[in-house]
Structures are given as C-alpha cells and as structure tokens.
C-alpha cells in the first residue's frame, strides 16, 4: 500500500501482454508459498509489492484476462455507506488460528497461504499467554464455547538476541530475524524444545456462530475480556484522515516497542461490510497493510575491534561514528567474520550504510564507495588473541571464524563460567553475569571448577558490597544443589564447542558416564545418531586437552554428577519395553511432558504419529485427529484412568 490518501480497494492502471500476466501470477503464487508455507521468503516485501502492483496494472488494461483465482483481485468500495476502519500494529510474526470446542483449545494451525497450514497444537500449548480453556464464556447473558481466534505468534527483540547470543557462543549459526526463528520453533517436533523458547501470542480476530457481533473493534474488546492478549494499540477510525494519523504516529514510535512491527493493518470495522467484500487466498479484501520502509543511515567506521566468546570464537566488531537509527544511537555493529568483511570490501575509514529492517541487530549492508578516502585501511585478522595472553589464533579449513583455543584466555573464562551457571546449565541461582564478573576480577574464579571452592572465600564475600551472610549462604546452597544436576546438563554446561542441549542429551544417553565418553574415539562418537563429524572432533579434542581434563577431575572430586542416575539406567527391560504410545487430548492429572517422561522411564516410546505399529493411544479431553486415526486402525485406546493404572503398577 502506498502512503496516498486512497482507501478504496481497486486494481492499478498499467499494461503488459498475456504472457507477462501469466508469468506474474506464477511468480506471486511461488513467492506466497515460500513465505506462508515454507517460511523462507525468496524476495523482499518491496520486490513482492512491485510485482503485485504490476499485475494489478496489467489486469486493469486487459480486464478480459482477469480470473477469479488471480492473487490481485480486490473488491469494490461499498457505495452510500459509512465506512469505519480499525487500525492495528502489524506484528512481524507467524499467523496462527486457534479453534476452541466447549471452551477448551481443540487445535491450532498456522494460517499458511489461506488454504493450508501446519498443525502445531502440541507446540502452541506450551505458549504461556494462550488460554488452554475459557472460564468466563458468558457475555451479555449469551454463553459460547465454540469459536475461532486468530492472531500472531512472535518473539520480543530481547528474547531473540539472548537466543542468538547462546547459539553464537556455541559456534552455531545465528538466526536472521525473530520471525524466522518463531516459524522454525513452531515446526519443531518436540514440544519440550518449543517450551524453552519464550514465544508470545497476540490476538486480532474472533468468530463464533454462538456469539455474533457487527463490529471488528467490539470483537477485539471481547477477546481481551475472555482472557486473550490483544494488540499494543488498536484504534477505531471514522475517516481515512484518522487512519493516516495513526500510521504517522507509529512511524515515529515503532522503535520504542519491545517487539518488531513492519507496518500497520487497516480493516473495515463492520462485519457485514467485511462479508460483502469477501476474502481471497492471500488476504481478506476488507483488510490492507501499510508497510514501513526499512530505516538506514550512513556513518563512518572508526575502527574494527575483536570480541572473544566462551568457545574462543573471535568476532570482528565495527566501531562506528555514533549515528541515530531506529530509535537509538548506534555506535557498534557486528561484522560477523573475515569473509563478511572481505566480500563487502569493508575498510577502516569507510562511509557505510547501516540498516535495521527485519533484523534486530543493526547491520552494515554496504560501503558508499564514492565517499571512500585515500587513507582508508584494509583490515586483516591478527595472528594472536587480543587478550593479555596473546595466544595464537587460527582458522580451521572450511570454517568462517577465527578461534582462540587457549583454555586460560581471560575473555573466555568469564563467559564460560556464566554459561556453566546459567539456567539451562547447572542453574546456580545467584551466580549471574555481574557476580561472575566481580568474582573473576577478585581472582576467586579462574575456571568453572573454582565455583565449588568458593566457600574458601566465604568470609571475604560476606564483606563485599551488596553481600551478607544470608545472600552468601543462599549462593552456597545453590552451588551444593547443582552437584546433583543430570549428567546431560553437566555435559552441556562444560561448554564444549558445537554441543547444545539436544546433543548433550544424546551423548549422555549413549555413553552413560564421563569415563566412556572420554575413552571414545571420534569415529565412535560420530557413529551416534545426530552426532556429526565436526561435533565428534570437538568432543574428542576437549577430552584430550590436559587443562580440560584437570577441570573435569576437579568437578568429580567436588561431587558433581558425571553419569546417568540410577533411575535413568533402569529403562531397559521395564514394563513398557517395546511399547509405542501416542498422546492426544488434554490430561488432567499430568502434563503431556510428564506422561512422556513416565513412559520413557518405563522403557516405552512416545511418537507423534499413529500407525499400525502403535501399541496404545492415550486419550484425554478434546482429542484431535490422532484419536480418529487410532480408532480406524484398531489401536488400543486408553483413557486417563486406564493409562494411570498401567504406569503406576
């Protein structure tokens, strides 16, 4: 949508021949599929809009060639009627449809291209601000329990940056933007992994045969009344002038939001008028989006510095002449790696364009060559680490990043200790970033094993600012409690390069204790399902490094758990060995995750698909299509009471 004051819905006014019209339709359908179904955009919004506008223009020139399934079809403005509009922020997330039956969440699907989407019910149930059931389903004396809610799943910028920070430190590829990460998360096969991502939901549509309204704006208020999160700012506008006032105000304020928006959605308020206008595959005819241009600015690279992460990865950072962009002053921007710098021929002293569009982190997109000075300096990586040890750095063939592998690199030490103590690691409450920094500077911590010797400094810690006997004792209690952490959490906490939470679980389950893992060859490790060659080499090198082995031995002496626990080893030859379960519907006495853990602890297996090989289908309230398929295949059905009897024998 262009920012002209034109609120009618009608095609454009240019021309091309019949072949071009067919070509444009094919391209637009292809890009729609990539964007909505595969969540992998092939073109920018601007490029898409240009193609879309061209097709509109051509169909205006050749109206006889317009077909009902053309992606450009728009309805005509309604004559002789007052039109009110609802304006909403256009959250940059993934569209979701929720269906409720008898007041309970029945199923959830991504909206796809209007015809098809993914069933993501189990994953959506992990999103905390989506109601699983509606208690107050009586409005104006009308009871309702069967309805549809649509909205957007998204991540805040803060949460997105935190996830990327962890991945970058683990040597994993970072995500491009919050939307792609959200889309990928919803498609994960394991709801447990989804639950660890802080996804959020905002609702913007309500429909029910039992509760009819003639106002979209009133439906938004109803959603909020029954417990659904609604938009940050929704306004009922009586004229196009008010619509454009809303657009202009948020163009200035959008950068103050904790999440990303890429524009404003304008909707016809009257439900009756919406029904007359109808819907096409890509979008309703009664709604249209105004998209903001990506913001950019020019500034000068004053220098390039290096940052060292906990795994030794060295990241070049552009030190910029401070410039105001997207609501904040930008003075630094990541340059990712040496290849990124070389491909763009980025030099110290260059004037560069930095942009903050779909990405949260400002990025250097290009060099303004016409402003390049004769004294600009090409950058090359040094041969030593920027830390005080000045240890040698190297770049493994086939990898993008340079690496410092010295285990005593002070830049790495702090980040490794922070990772070890983090919530997803050993979960040592009270040993956060600031405390780690303080203890490292005082010399109390030089590696992760020193955490378990901190009690030797108890008297000194008590005397520090913002400390005392209670807070000190609480910290030591948390450290003591962490010794009993599961073996896979300990493995993850060690900070072995390329080893995330999932691969740590696989390794723990396969090797069962630290001794077996230490003695395994790289070939034996890479033969384990989902453990690749690069990961295997990293693990092998870790356990053949004298400094790392010394730390592991100190952890053992401190009493840290370095093997699978007794209860984790007895899954073989148990009651449910060889049995395959499928869970469907909502259980009242336990969560899905708890039921899955119990089955696996008894030797059983839980899958997400019903087949002729399924032993049991466990059915709770509001079961989905898996229940119907289980009946059709003759799979044994267990209600919650029968299931409880089996697992509690």
- The average pLDDT is 84
Major sheet details: 7 strands, antiparallel
What is the top-level CATH class of the largest domain? Answer: Alpha Beta
Q: Please, what is the oligomeric state? A: single chain
Category from helices, strands and their pairing: alpha+beta
Whole-number total of structural domains:
5
CATH architecture of the largest domain: 2-Layer Sandwich
Task: Report on the architecture of this protein.
With 649 residues, the chain is an alpha+beta fold. The protein folds into five domains: 1-77, Orthogonal Bundle (Helix Hairpins); 85-290, D-amino Acid Aminotransferase, Chain A, domain 1; 295-378, Nucleic acid-binding proteins (OB fold (Dihydrolipoamide Acetyltransferase, E2P)), CATH 2.40.50; 410-566, 5' to 3' exonuclease, C-terminal subdomain (DNA polymerase, domain 1); 580-647, BRCT domain (Rossmann fold, 3-Layer(aba) Sandwich). It has 24 helices and 23 strands. The strands form six sheets. Strands 11, 12, 13, 15, 16, 18 and 19 form a seven-stranded antiparallel β-sheet that branches. A hairpin with a 7-residue loop joins β18 (393-394) and β19. The longest helix is centred in the N-terminal third of the chain and has 20 residues, at 18-37.
SSE layout and pairings?
Blueprint: H1 18-37, H2 45-61, E1 85-91, E2 94-101, E3 104-110, H3 121-124, E4 138-139, E5 142-143, E6 147-154, H4 157-169, H5 178-186, H6 191-195, E7 200-207, H7 216-225, E8 234-237, H8 240-253, E9 261-268, H9 271-277, E10 287-291, E11 295-308, E12 313-325, E13 328-334, H10 338-344, E14 347-348, E15 351-356, E16 363-367, E17 377-378, E18 393-394, E19 402-404, H11 410-421, H12 433-441, H13 458-462, H14 469-482, H15 487-493, H16 501-511, H17 514-519, H18 522-526, H19 533-542, H20 546-558, H21 566-569, E20 580-584, H22 592-601, E21 605-607, E22 616-619, H23 625-633, E23 636-638, H24 640-647
Parallel strand pairs: 20-21, 20-22, 22-23
Antiparallel strand pairs: 1-8, 1-9, 2-3, 2-6, 4-5, 6-7, 9-10, 11-12, 11-15, 12-13, 12-19, 14-17, 15-16, 18-19
């Amino acid at each position: 949508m262009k920012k002209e004051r034109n609120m009618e819905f009608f095609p454009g006014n240019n021309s091309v021949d019949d072949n071009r019209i067919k070509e444009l339709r094919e391209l637009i359908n292809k890009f729609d599929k990539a964007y909505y179904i595969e969540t992998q955009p092939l073109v920018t919004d601007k490029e898409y809009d240009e193609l879309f506008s061209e097709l509109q223009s051509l169909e205006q020139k050749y109206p006889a060639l317009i077909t009902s399934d053309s992606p450009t079809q728009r309805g005509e403005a309604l004559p002789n009627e007052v039109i009110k509009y609802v304006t909403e922020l256009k959250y940059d997330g993934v569209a979701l449809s929720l269906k409720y039956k008898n007041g309970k969440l029945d199923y959830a699907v991504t909206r796809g291209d209007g015809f098809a989407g993914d069933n993501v019910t189990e994953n959506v149930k992990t999103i905390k601000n989506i109601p699983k059931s509606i208690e107050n389903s009586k409005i104006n004396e009308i009871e309702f329990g069967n309805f549809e809610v649509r909205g957007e799943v998204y991540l805040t910028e803060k949460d997105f940056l935190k996830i990327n920070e962890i991945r970058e430190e683990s040597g994993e590829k970072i995500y491009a933007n919050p939307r792609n990460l959200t889309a990928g998360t919803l498609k994960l096969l394991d709801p447990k992994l989804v639950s660890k991502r802080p996804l959020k939901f905002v609702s913007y549509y309500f429909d029910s045969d039992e509760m009819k309204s003639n106002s979209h704006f009133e439906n938004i208020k109803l959603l909020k009344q029954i417990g659904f999160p609604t938009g940050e700012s929704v306004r009922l506008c009586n004229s196009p002038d008010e619509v454009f006032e809303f657009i202009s105000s948020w163009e200035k304020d959008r950068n103050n939001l904790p999440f990303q928006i890429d524009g404003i959605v304008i909707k016809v308020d009257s439900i009756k008028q919406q029904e007359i206008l109808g819907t096409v595959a890509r979008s309703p005819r009664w709604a249209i989006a105004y998209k903001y241009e990506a913001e950019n600015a020019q500034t000068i690279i004053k220098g390039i510095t290096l940052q060292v992460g906990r795994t030794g990865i060295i990241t070049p950072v552009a030190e910029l002449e401070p410039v105001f962009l997207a609501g904040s002053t930008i003075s630094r921007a990541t340059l990712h790696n040496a290849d990124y710098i070389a491909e763009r021929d980025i030099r110290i002293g260059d004037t560069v364009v930095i942009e903050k569009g779909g990405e949260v982190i400002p990025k250097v997109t290009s060099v303004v060559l016409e402003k390049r000075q004769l004294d600009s300096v090409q950058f090359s990586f040094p041969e030593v680490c920027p830390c005080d040890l000045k240890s040698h750095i190297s770049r493994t063939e086939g990898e993008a990043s340079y690496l410092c592998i010295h285990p005593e690199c002070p830049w790495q030490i702090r980040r490794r200790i922070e990772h070890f103590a983090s919530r997803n690691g050993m979960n040592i409450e009270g040993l956060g970033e600031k405390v780690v920094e303080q203890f490292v500077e005082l010399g109390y911590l030089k590696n992760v094993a020193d955490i378990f010797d901190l009690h030797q400094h108890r008297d000194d810690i008590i005397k520090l600012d913002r400390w005392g006997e209670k807070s000190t004792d609480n910290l030591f209690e948390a450290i003591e409690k962490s010794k009993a952490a599961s073996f896979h959490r300990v493995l993850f906490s060690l900070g072995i390069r390329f080893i995330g939470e999932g691969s740590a679980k696989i390794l723990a389950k396969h090797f069962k204790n630290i001794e077996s893992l230490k003695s395994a060859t790289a070939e034996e490790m890479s033969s384990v399902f989902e453990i690749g060659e690069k990961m295997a080499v990293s693990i092998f090198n870790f356990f053949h490094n004298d400094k790392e082995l010394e730390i592991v031995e100190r952890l053992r002496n401190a009493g840290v758990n370095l093997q699978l626990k007794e209860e984790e080893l007895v899954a073989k030859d148990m009651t449910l060995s060889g049995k395959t379960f499928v869970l469907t519907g909502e259980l009242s006495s336990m969560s899905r995750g708890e039921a899955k853990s119990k089955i696996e602890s008894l030797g059983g297996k839980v899958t997400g698909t019903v087949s002729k090989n399924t032993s049991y289908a466990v059915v709770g309230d509001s079961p989905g299509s898996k229940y119907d398929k289980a009946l059709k295949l003759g799979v044994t059905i267990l209600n919650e009471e029968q299931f409880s009897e089996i697992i509690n024998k």
